[in-house]
């Protein structure tokens, strides 16, 4: 066996190194420090430093390669999407600091980092898989630790309930997906991505297999009608985990769906475009209409993230190279904006325990900076210039329009107006609605501030600095 | 450094200055310095433009600058101006300048107010200098969204409802617009977003034009208060603070007319010829219906808002007549309406600030109490009803002369119907003036009120000088506009 093959997997290897170091470091925390959350090694500093190093080292793409007989497949685009996930995870770590200091979580902070990085590792494998088994292993590695993360606040009833809901739906969707894969294997006789297209001919059995596969992915992406778990899990999970779930988990799944559709199901392009067409319309419209009625901010953001997944599907539907570059760019911009919103929600929930729209009334009077950053993030999510969200929305619409989906783009555009309505409801609460007892003024900790600063730089800079999109565009590929 | 980019750069610097400013004095000095610089810049630009044209430069757009932004998508930051945009920039600079003085004493959250105000003006300036569809659309949206907070936080009355209605309706319009822009881009072969180049290619298939033209026109038309999408305008204007009403009615609604002309008609001339009748009927309704609605209102701001619907309807009406005289009249009307409606809203704001009511039934005999403001109000009213010597006359005259140049029965009937709006305008303006300014004041509290302060006088006199100036000496500006309208109109002749 040629061990130099492993060098092509440097991203995975480096992530494993980070994971193992954190795991070992956790063993050396003294019991006293563990109890009062003052562990000198783990207190956010070590994970953040390691994660930063990992991100920087793996920032630049290398040559495309097939490893282990095609089980693992690397193209430069993978580095881009993995970097996006790395940066998002880093911001999540920054946000987690305040939560990790709390008494009921302080003693298990090592577990949080290890579990998070395990899911990230699973997503890496999923992204670079060249074989459906590898893909499935990645998928499971990504979802099982996630259930533990969702149930991390185990003394909170909501959190455990959300964990149970998540694991059940995740397993159910995996089962569906696996069933789809077995049908595909039956018709193709192989599970290698490279060999499959020549056996794909759009027979009824294969369409059925595709539907099962897509349903499984739909659960991960929380597309309508597979979205029913989303609102409950997002509400119950700790805010930091919700942020991770809504950005990193979703972003990787969207990219993987696109690559599988391009690589494996290319001959069935007509079929999957039709499925995606209706799913996209349903996701965007239904989620937006539900979001309008939400009072709890985390539930509102859950529906918002479902509709955002629908917008991301606009980049998938064409299967073009421009679709891919606009998808990756969209995920990046969405990560900055959504994490910005969740950072504010998290810090406010931790300091005051308040999460509903009414509680946010008058926030601008007491916490002007947080409200301002929240406003920027919400505007970016709604696609208002000069923030990056405008650019990413424009490009993804452009990609779908180019592929001829004019009506779909139009429906999506009309939906941006609905989404603007509920984002403005939050803005209205913060700036306009008067309040008897607003959330008191507080200073957020430095880690959250750094996280918010990165998000803000992203929100403002990603659109204006065209180099980001252009470098993504150079590496994109399509049907 | 291109002179046009300064129009975006100065507001950006102002934003930075405001961000750093501490205390009311610093904020005011940043605003005064910035808006004066913008006004000076637009005057210099007008001078440079005229001398360049005088020297025989006949390019479509002057002071061009192109900076490739998103190369794979053919998006560039391209700027350039012709006579129409120069006139609009001048208008915007005047309104921003006077608007700054009109909100001199605004409380609370002064800093935030001016931040959003400056962002709004940056969008407006950026829109008028852009000749790339993407950049133009971007600035268009930058100009829209600050309205929500400006009305929602600092407004009065049903401000939350009005702010939300205005924002959602305008954003709905921009959804139409965006699909229209994408249609134009891909219809013309997806090689450029530059308006001049697309017009030069002139290759959008007719069948596609017939889809994208109505969408684009509707998108911009919402902002131009096109019937039946004008309903945001009265509510929005009535709830907005003074300077925001000024900027909104004075400049922002002009974005609609300008965009219709520059994008919808310029790029899709065949469809414009084919489909203009639909929109002519709608704008005809706007003109007459707006004027009649103004007659029955009792709130000063609502009267003026409906009057704006009527006058902005006239802008779109004239554009759709598709000839040079009428289009020149349309741009003149944008200028004239921008100036006089800003004057009106400024005066209404000042009167409201003193009497705390805008209800016509509660106001009486103001002429004796605040003579300066009342005289100015009469002047604004006369300009509105088209008295010769003031700006309204020049614009409306040109529009109706131009409209009547179309020989067919349809256009001429519509022109005659639209002409009736002049009479109706006279009815509501004269009634209003008679009711609130003359007679004897019965309200004791009103007797103790004072006349305008110095900052208010700066705003009002500045606007009156412009209104009268445009009315007395219209030819230099109308010939500048007319020359620039010509290349767009020649496109329309098959």
Description:
The complex is a heterodimer of chains A (479) and B (494). Chain A has one domain. Chain A has 20 helices and 2 strands. Chain A has helices at residues 10-27, 31-36, 45-57, 76-100, 103-106, 109-128, 132-150, 157-188, 204-221, 230-236, 239-263, 269-292, 297-317, 321-352, 363-366, 368-382, 388-402, 406-431, 446-464, 467-475; strands spanning 65-67, 72-74. The two termini of chain A are 34 Å apart. A two-stranded antiparallel sheet of chain B has the order 1-2. Chain B has one domain. The two termini of chain B are 40 Å apart. By secondary structure, chain B is mainly alpha-helical. Classes of the chains: A mainly alpha (479), B mainly alpha (494).
Q: In terms of quaternary structure, what is this?
A: heterodimer
Q: Count the helices of chain B. How many?
A: 21
Strand arrangement, major sheet of chain A? 1-2
Alpha-beta classification of chain A: mainly alpha
User: Considering DSSP H and I runs of 4 or more, what fraction of the residues of chain A is helical?
Assistant: over 70%
Question: What is the CA-atom radius of gyration of chain A, in angstroms?
Answer: 21 Å
| Percent range for β-strand residues of chain A | under 5%
Largest sheet of chain A: 2 strands, antiparallel
Contiguous low-pLDDT stretches of chain A (5 residues minimum) are none
Given the helix and strand composition of chain B, which structural class is it?
Answer: mainly alpha
Chains forming the largest contact: A-B, 31 and 32 residues
Strand content of chain B: under 5%
For the secondary structure, the number of strands of chain A is: 2
The N- and C-terminal alpha carbons of chain A lie at a distance of 34 Å
Helicity range of chain B: over 70%
């Amino acid at each position: 066996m040629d061990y130099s093959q492993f060098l092509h997997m440097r991203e995975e290897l480096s992530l494993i190194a980070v994971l193992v170091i954190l795991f070992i470091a956790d063993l050396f925390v003294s019991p006293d420090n563990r109890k009062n959350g003052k562990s000198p090694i783990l207190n956010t500093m070590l994970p953040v430093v390691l994660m930063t190093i990992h991100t920087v080292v793996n920032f630049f793409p290398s040559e495309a390669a097939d490893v282990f007989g095609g089980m693992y497949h690397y193209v430069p685009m993978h580095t881009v999407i993995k970097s996006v996930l790395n940066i998002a995870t880093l911001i999540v770590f920054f946000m987690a600091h305040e939560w990790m200091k709390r008494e009921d979580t302080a003693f298990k902070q090592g577990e949080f980092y290890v579990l998070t990085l395990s899911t990230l590792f699973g997503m890496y494998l999923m992204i670079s898989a060249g074989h459906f088994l590898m893909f499935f292993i990645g998928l499971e590695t990504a979802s099982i630790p996630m259930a533990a993360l969702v149930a991390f606040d185990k003394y909170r009833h909501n959190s455990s309930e959300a964990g149970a809901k998540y694991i059940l739906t995740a397993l159910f969707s995996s089962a569906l997906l696996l069933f789809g894969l077995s049908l595909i294997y039956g018709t193709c006789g192989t599970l290698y991505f490279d060999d499959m297209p020549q056996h794909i001919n759009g027979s009824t059995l294969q369409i059925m297999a595709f539907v099962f596969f897509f349903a499984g992915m739909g659960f991960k992406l929380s597309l309508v009608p597979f979205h029913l778990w989303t609102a409950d899990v997002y509400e119950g999970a700790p805010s930091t985990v919700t942020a991770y779930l809504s950005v990193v988990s979703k972003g990787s799944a969207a990219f993987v769906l696109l690559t599988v559709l391009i690589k494996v199901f290319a001959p069935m392009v007509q079929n999957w475009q039709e499925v995606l067409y209706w799913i996209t319309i349903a996701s965007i419209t239904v989620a937006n209409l539900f979001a309008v009625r939400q009072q709890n901010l985390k539930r509102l953001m859950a529906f918002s993230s479902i509709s955002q997944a629908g917008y991301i599907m606009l980049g998938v539907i064409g299967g073009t190279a421009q679709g891919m570059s606009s998808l990756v760019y969209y995920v990046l911009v969405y990560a900055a904006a959504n994490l910005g919103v969740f950072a504010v929600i998290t810090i406010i929930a931790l300091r005051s325990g308040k999460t509903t729209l009414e509680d946010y009334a008058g926030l601008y009077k007491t916490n002007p900076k947080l409200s301002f950053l929240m406003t920027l993030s919400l505007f970016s999510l709604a696609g208002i210039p000069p923030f990056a969200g405008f650019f990413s929305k424009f490009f993804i619409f452009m990609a779908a329009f180019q592929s001829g989906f004019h009506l779909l783009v139009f429906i999506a555009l009309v939906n941006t107006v609905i989404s603007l309505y509920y984002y403005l409801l939050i803005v209205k609460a913060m700036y306009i609605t008067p309040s008897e007892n607003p959330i008191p003024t507080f200073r957020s900790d430095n880690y959250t501030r750094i996280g918010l600063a990165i998000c803000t730089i992203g929100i403002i800079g990603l659109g204006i600095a065209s180099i980001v999109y252009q470098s993504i565009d150079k590496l994109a590929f399509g049907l | 450094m291109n002179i046009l980019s300064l129009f975006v750069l100065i507001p950006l610097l102002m934003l930075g200055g405001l961000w750093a400013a501490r205390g009311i004095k610093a904020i005011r000095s940043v605003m005064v310095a910035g808006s004066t610089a913008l006004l000076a810049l637009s005057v210099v630009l007008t001078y440079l433009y005229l001398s360049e044209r005088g020297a025989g430069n006949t390019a479509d757009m002057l002071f061009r600058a192109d900076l490739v932004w998103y190369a794979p998508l053919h998006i560039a930051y391209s700027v350039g101006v012709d006579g129409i945009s120069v006139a609009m920039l001048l208008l915007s600079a005047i309104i921003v300048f006077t608007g700054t003085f009109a909100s001199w004493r605004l409380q609370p959250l002064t800093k935030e107010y001016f931040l959003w105000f400056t962002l709004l003006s940056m969008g407006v300036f950026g829109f008028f200098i852009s000749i790339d569809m993407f950049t133009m659309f971007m600035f268009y949206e930058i100009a829209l969204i600050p309205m929500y907070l400006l009305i929602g936080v600092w407004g009065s009355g049903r401000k939350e409802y009005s702010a939300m209605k205005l924002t959602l309706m305008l954003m709905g319009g921009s959804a139409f617009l965006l699909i229209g822009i994408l249609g134009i881009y891909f219809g013309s072969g997806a090689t450029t977003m530059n308006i001049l180049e697309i017009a030069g290619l002139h290759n959008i298939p007719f069948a596609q034009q017939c889809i994208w033209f109505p969408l684009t026109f509707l998108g911009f038309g919402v902002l131009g208060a096109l019937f039946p999408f004008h309903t945001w305008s009265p509510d929005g204007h009535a709830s907005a603070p003074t300077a925001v009403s000024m900027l909104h009615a004075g400049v922002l609604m002009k974005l609609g007319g300008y965009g219709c002309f520059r994008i919808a008609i310029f790029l899709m001339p065949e469809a414009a010829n084919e489909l203009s009748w639909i929109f002519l009927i709608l704008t005809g309704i706007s003109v007459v219906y707006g004027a009649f609605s103004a007659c029955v209102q009792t709130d000063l701001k609502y009267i003026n808002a409906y009057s704006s619907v009527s006058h902005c309807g006239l802008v779109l009406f004239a554009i759709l007549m598709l000839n040079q005289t009428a289009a020149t009249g349309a741009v003149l009307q944008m200028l004239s309406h921008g100036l006089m409606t800003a004057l009106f809203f400024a005066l209404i704001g000042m009167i409201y600030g003193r009497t705390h009511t805008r209800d016509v039934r509660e106001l009486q005999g103001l002429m004796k109490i605040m003579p300066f403001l009342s005289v100015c109000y009469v002047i604004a009213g006369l300009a509105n009803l088209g008295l010769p010597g003031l700006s309204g006359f020049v614009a409306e005259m040109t529009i109706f002369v131009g409209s009547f140049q179309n020989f067919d029965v349809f256009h001429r009937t519509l022109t005659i119907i639209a002409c009736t709006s002049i009479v109706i305008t006279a009815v509501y303006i004269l009634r209003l003036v008679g009711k609130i300014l003359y007679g004897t004041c019965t309200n004791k509290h009103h007797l103790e009120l004072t006349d305008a302060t110095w900052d208010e006088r700066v705003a009002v006199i500045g606007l009156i000088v412009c209104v009268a100036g445009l009315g007395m000496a219209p030819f230099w500006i109308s010939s500048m506009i007319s020359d620039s309208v010509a290349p767009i109109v020649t496109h329309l002749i098959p």
